[in-house]
Input
Amino acid sequence: MVTSHWRAAPAQAASLRRRGAVLESAILDAALEQLSTVGWNGLTMEGVAAGAQTGKAAVYRRWPSKEDLVADALQAGLPRMDEAPDLGSVREDLLALCLQARDAMFSRPGFALRSVIHECDTMQAERFHSVITGGVVEPAIKLLHEIITRGIARGEVRPDAVNSYVCDAIPAMMMYRTKMCASEWPDRDIQEMIDQLMLPLLRPEGT
Output
């Protein structure tokens, strides 16, 4: 019996076994892993290919540039925020939403997103503007708007509180303290932000 001495390299063998959507998912997952560990500046197409156990050519066939790959990886990996909590009071609704946002910020896709925001230059950041706005900012603002509107209907919130400044307060505070103060937003800090910032800001006059 003749035995062949040739064997495919591990990456080549894995590439042969996985095709189409399965391989694409592995590549996007490897890109998120690279972003969350070595950051935007450390991410390379070669490193992503190695993490996905495929060849570099398989990555470039689908994504001609690092920017294209990262945009798709973020879009696929960012947690979805589709439904506003409805727990019976504006305090509990805001608290639940902020805990959800905190968990998303410190998830692997969240770390990946922050590496892009903090490390990309102005031209590169423009490439990700729609991903960040459509995937993170707009959904969060929409849910805050819904919670505040519901609070107005219950008489918990002053009628003129649905405006862009009020809705920006929580995202702005969370981003600022995460970046400038290295806060990881433990539950107690989130509760204090709601009780000391948001509820006085939203409360009707005379209550």
User: Anything to note?
Assistant: DSSP finds eleven helices and no strands in the chain. Residues 28 and 72 are 7 Å apart (CA to CA). Confidence is low (pLDDT under 50) at residues 1-9, 12-16.
